Amino acid sequence: MKNIIKSLLLIFFLTISCAKDDSVNNGLNNSNYTFKQQVGYSANDILSNNKFTDIYIEVMYVDGFKPSAETLTNLKNFIGSRTYKSNIIIEERLINIVLKPVYSMEDVRSIEDANRSIFSFENQLAISALFLNGKSTSDTDTTTILGTSYRNTSFVIFEETIKTTANNILGSSKITLESTVVLHEFCHLLGLVNLGTNMVVNHEDVSHSAHCTVENCLMYYLIENGKNIGHWVKDTQIPQLDAYCIDDLRANGGK
User: Fold this and answer.
1) Residue 75 falls in which region: left (phi positive, over 0), alpha (psi -120 to 50) or beta
2) I want to staple 152 with a disulfide (CB 3.0 to 4.6 A). Which of 37, 118, 147, 175 is the partner?
3) Residues 122-136, buried b or exposed e (16+ Cβ, 10 A)?
């Protein structure tokens, strides 16, 4: 009996030790932290280190539409400059899905739910970033959707549309455009503008909610529209956040 008890204790100890050694939470969602709330719900949790000290971004992409390494570096640097996260980890993973020429937001959510493997736990906050072929069902004759934030820790980039748009914009590189859209959508997760992060000074565009009134700001509404983005994204210049947006982030726990 003593030997059996010792064996059980040893198995228990090894199980706990392995769990603590894992740097990320792969597999099923065993966290109580919700990831299906509205955009901006987790703004303070992303910006501050009150609840989570680390951030893990799971980049899922379909074959042929992998984001550039430069864009992911730009995202990592941006997070480091605007949040108090001690560790920023980005993992890229090819996913196998039935490709479609057009995706609805219901399609996007279903793809995330079927493929997401990293969830927030302990001191680590997880973000899901999807890079898809095709385009959005919200595209019109006057609007081309380049990316969308759709949950509190989730955003999608229509990578094929990014490539097509970059080719059509004289002087704008694909990396610059891709980086701009990724940072813009991530800033929506940070609660900008007035989307979970309160405004210090009123600067929300009333005609285009959750966007900034300052035209050269990263959060200007036309950044999301591939039909008109050429005026704001030129050569290697990625638009920056204006002073109003930065003040908002600082007031909500960021830098």
Assistant:
1) alpha
2) 37
3) eebbbbbbbbbbbbb
222 domain-assigned:
yes
Mean per-residue pLDDT for 164-187? 88
Identity of the residue numbered 29: N
Tokens encoding 144: 């081309």
Please give the backbone phi and psi of residue 154, each rounded to the nearest 5 degrees, phi first. -140, 140
> Which residue range is the domain that position 174 belongs to?
25-251
Tell me the average pLDDT across 6-18.
32
Q: How far does the chain reach from its first CA to its final CA, in angstroms?
A: 58
More confident residue, 23 or 206: 206
SS3 214: coil
Neighbouring-strand partners of residue 136: 103
Residue 138 forms part of a structural domain: yes
In a domain, 156, yes or no: yes
Which pTM does this prediction carry? 0.86
| pLDDT at position 220 | 93
Helix (H, G, I), strand (E, B) or coil at 247: helix
Give the contacts of 180 (CB within 8 A, at least 6 positions apart).
Answer: 218, 223, 229, 232, 233, 238, 239
Number of domains in the chain: 1
Q: What is the CATH number of the domain that holds 170?
A: 3.40.390.10
Q: Report if residue 82 sits inside a domain.
A: yes
